[in-house]
Amino acid sequence: MKKWILAAAVSAALAGCAQHSSDSLALPAGVTRLETVSATEAGVGIPYKKFQLANGLTVILHQDSSDPLVHVDVTYHVGSGRELPGRSGFAHLFEHMMFQGSENVADEQHFKVVTESGGTLNGTTNTDRTNYFETVPSNQLEKMLWLESDRMGFFLPALTEEKFEVQRETVKNERAQRIDNQPYGRMYERFSQAMYPAGHPYSWPVIGWPEDLNRAELADVKQFFQRWYGPNNATLTIGGDFDELQTLAWVNKYFGDIPRGPEVEPLPKTKVTLDKDRYLSMEDKVHLPLIRMALPTVYASHQDEAALDLLANILGGGKTSLVYKNLVKEGYAVQASVSHPCREFSCEMSFFALANPAKGGSLKEAEAMLRASIAEFESRGVTDDDLEKVKVQFEANTVFGLQSVRGKVSTLAANETFYGNPNMIAQDLKRYASVTKEDVVRVFNQYVKDKPMVVMSVVPEGAGALIAAADNFVAPAPQVAAHAIVGELKVAQAKSSFDRSVMPKSGEAPKLKVPSLWRDNLGNGIAVLGTESRETPTTEIVVYLAGGHRMADVSKAGIANLTAAMMNESSASRSSEELTQALELLGASVQFSASDYQSEIKVSALTDKLDATLAVLKEKLMTPGFRAADFERVKQQTLQGLKHSQSNPNYLASTGFARLLFGSDNALGVDAGGTIDSVQALTLEDVKAFYDAQYRAGNAQVVAVSSAPKASLMTSLNALGQWQGAASSLPALGALPQLEGGTIYVQDKPGAAQSVISIGKVSLPFDATGEYFKAGLMNYPLGGAFNSRINLNLREDKGYTYGARSRFSGGLETGQFFATASVRSDVTAAAVAEFIKEISGYRESGIRADELEFMRSSISQGQALDYETPYQKAGFMRMIQRYQLADNFTSEQDKIVAGIGKGEIDALAKKHLNINEMVIFVVGDKASLERELKALGYPVKDLAL
To answer: b/e map of 893-916 (b: 16 or more CB within 10 Å)?
Structure first.
């Protein structure tokens, strides 16, 4: 990629950011400037300034005034890899604990302050680091620094046994929801046991072993915090629209008093080796047999990482790869891929395939085919196109990664944490650009050819005959360290030089930057709504076609999705693989999809490659191949996917709840993916007929966000000017069923570790400024925010769930209100009772004054975050286009938010939250649930899908 492309992408971030720069003025006492990198000096990269406080805290500032927001990230260089054997899960547990208040921040106040400020927040943990981050309007920056500094320096005084126990239960619920109650959920942790020797930092799961979580004590947790969460083991990165000197003064004020923590030495990057192929297997509640094979290679940033990434792409990186050709294209696998994920201390060459039961589902055969693909590479070698497409994709992904402040901040923070150098983009681009054919062959011979692997089979219960080979690996007995940390701690107590109990006030409200829109029509009448966005040299186009799943007869449910899948295959003149390669060489993507009310075509391209990308779109759109071989493969993949979904409790919950509300006689009651029976009956002729009705110019509207000006973009979009066809009409919506309100329906999922609860009713269609919008405001304190009544009760107070919410969801014709959560199986009936209590209590007592103020503040200030990325802009524009809204409809919403009172909100709650009008749907282990559910006093009925 030419350097000017990336330079242009990042130079926009410098515009208008020169005020109060630290370059020409004195820094606050105790702050040292380490480095300044500008776009001009770097050639490519993200401009930033790097500082350090006296206590060792690294501070990185990146200014971007394109939107009135800031993103704050605190990354601690500690993940599960710093835990000791038998003490797993501490780093992830702390991710939860750190949101539970500190000495000067009350319980749940962190969520409330950020949400009330109109912001978003979260934390994540992996094997190598933990990060906490907030995106807020720019006038809230000081408040975020107060919050983050208080939990860094003053967390332990607020840590209680009660908080510890609640969050331990929350983590257990998260594990149950994400691992124990999910198909293949336990595969990853068992695989890691076989890949890494006992005691290796990656040999246990990030979320922790259940027995280790049960073993943990409050004293262990405190010691773990003191050991790893000091300022000298952290990087504070701030990006967005802020005054640099003022920000440095705030950083020094809030973080400068925190004493340095224990010194942190890097762990050795010990090479992982396998002595022989290790086979292991497990039976699970799944439909599709899965094989995963992997071998250890190098580590992140190793000189051979880039060449190994290119090798993985050739072997299994999409439709142009060997694995796709040999397994997926021939129908032996529903999905298959090869990747080379890297972490701080180790990378893996990883092979994956979901075997197709229609071809027998043998994992022994799948293993043989994967190994044959590896052998084929040796005879095939590396082509010029192999190298070019991966390099172009990497370069394009780099540009697309610069579209958000969060993306740029995350990149700077990660590079500093792991490499001590935020400025890695140019170096990474050079690494990939310099890889040769000989390099790829060399790393194949050195790390992959004839090397032992871990081979894991996951098969349906009772189908042990399908495994690749008999197990020859048994996980070693668990080790348990005597203490949570090594050595004694000497940590100074933090003392503040000012009154930290006083929360900073918000700054002056920033001026919102709503996108400036333009409208035009193509020669064939297609309406185009566009905006120019010059932050990155990219173009995002979405073609919306009215119809989708709703256009088809319910007997042909799934036809919209199946047709979109076929549109992603061959054209009349080129195969799917050839089209994929053409797009890969452009660093672009063209993706067809379908949903309830529309089909969509999403186009992402570098603006200077837009015309070539739209030429591929035109070919796919106007001359689809509809080849019989493609259809049979895609249909079989769809069917196997539907069968696989039957083991997913969340899929059962969403499809079952829709069936209850809308019935099986109209499209809204049947999933857009269809049913096994409906998809089985679909033919290639059905696809062609749906294509003729759906993919017409008369159904189409276009939304475009581009760095190109309007005139240039419209010239490019003339590629669609020859598209013809009148608009299609929707069939009449079928009659909705009469709901039996106050009834509990149960979908049996024997042995489920969790139950998925859904409570709700048919409700309002979408509107932007009417009753639907106001109902959403009414629901916000009930279940629309993290610190809503429902979530605080079920998650924070009771520890029943990882998260609980309620919301109104409206479409063109109708909508629904629903409340939902995945809860521990043993508390299902109690959780249903708490849902009912909160919904009914809110309906009876109404909104409190503090909740009303919280809602107003959160909703009104949150608009500053709504228009940052191209797809955020596109979503906003599509709402205007689809519902024929005024460009300034958000101003009317602001007036509603500011003016709505308790009386109107309480009336809406009375009208829409009658629990006796709602149905209750539970997916779980009926045998263990039924008695307690009946004890609630509601009729209990079975629902079989």
So the answer is: bbebbeebeeeebbebbeebbebe
In the prediction, which pLDDT does 513 show?
76
CA distances from 224 to 218, 655, 701 (A): 10, 43, 55
What average pLDDT does the structure give for the chain? 92
Of 343, 534, 408, 342, which Cα lies nearest the Cα of 44? Answer: 408
Q: Got the DSSP string for 564-602? A: HHHHTS-BSSS-HHHHHHHHHHHT-EEEEEE-SSEEEEE
106-164 pLDDT tens trace:
988 999 999 999 899 999 999 999 999 999 999 999 999 999 999 999 999 999 999 89
- Name the percent of the chain lying above pLDDT 90: 80
pLDDT by residue (tens digit) across 446-490?
999 999 999 999 999 999 999 999 999 999 988 888 888 887 778
Length of the chain equals 945
Strand locations in 643-799 (E): 700-706, 743-748, 754-763
Q: What is the pLDDT, as a whole number, of residue 15? A: 36
Coil, strand, or helix at residue 878? helix
Q: CB burial class (10 A; 0-12, 13-18, 19+) of residue 553?
A: exposed
CA distances to 333, 334, 592, 638 from 325, in Å: 10, 12, 22, 18
How many alpha carbons lie under 13 Å from residue 273 in its C-beta half-sphere?
4
Token digits of residue 507: 């700054």
Phi-psi region of 234 (alpha: psi -120 to 50; beta: other; left: phi over 0): beta
DSSP 8-state symbol, 244:
H
Please enumerate in sequence order all residues whose Cβ is within 8 A of that of 862, keeping only pairs 6 or more positions apart, or say none: 118, 119, 137
- Please state the pTM of the whole predicted model: 0.90
| Matching residue, tokens 């399908």 | 466
Predicted confidence at residue 254, as pLDDT, reads 97
User: What is the SS3 assignment for 702?
Assistant: strand
The percentage of the chain sitting over the pLDDT mark of 70, rounded to a whole number, equals 97
How many angstroms separate the CA atoms of 609 and 442, rounded?
33
